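Support reply, case 0932

Customer input (verbatim):
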Amino acid sequence: MAEILFIPQTSSKSAIYEAILPQIEALVADETDLVANLANVAAVLKEAFGFFWVGFYLVKENQLVLGPFQGPLACTRIAFDKGVCGACYTRRETLLVPDVEAFPGHIACSSLSKSEIVVPGFKNDQVALVLDVDSDQLNDFDETDRVGLEALMRLVEKFL
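Our regenerated output:
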């Protein structure tokens, strides 16, 4: 597939998710390299929504290890019992955090991060990675993001 991305010029997040999901599916369909696919997924999300930080943490060596991402420098390793990413891994569910400062045990990789959504991805019924998306605005994520990013993770799970 050509590396062309169509992003509708709309303020509707649901319309943007609807437009980019099939494009991501086509983009990764013929590629077998996990890092390449995750890098492109992160790039599409960053370009489509302008998120402050978007990336993946992969389960390795009994912790979450930084994978492909877009944005400022990030924490490299996160214990399963630390921060929003660790809580997502442990609870095995999407976490939507309107104010990261109010989340017990939040890890401040960047002081500019204000809100966050983290979505687990599964392989063989085990969490294999998490998608972490940060905003520099409070309360920037909602149910539309949850639905869109969970749908995206079902696509990612196909190539794990």
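We compared this against your earlier run and they match. Two observations from our side: The chain has a mean pLDDT of 94. The first strand starts at residue 53 and ends at 60. Please reopen the case if you see a mismatch on your end.
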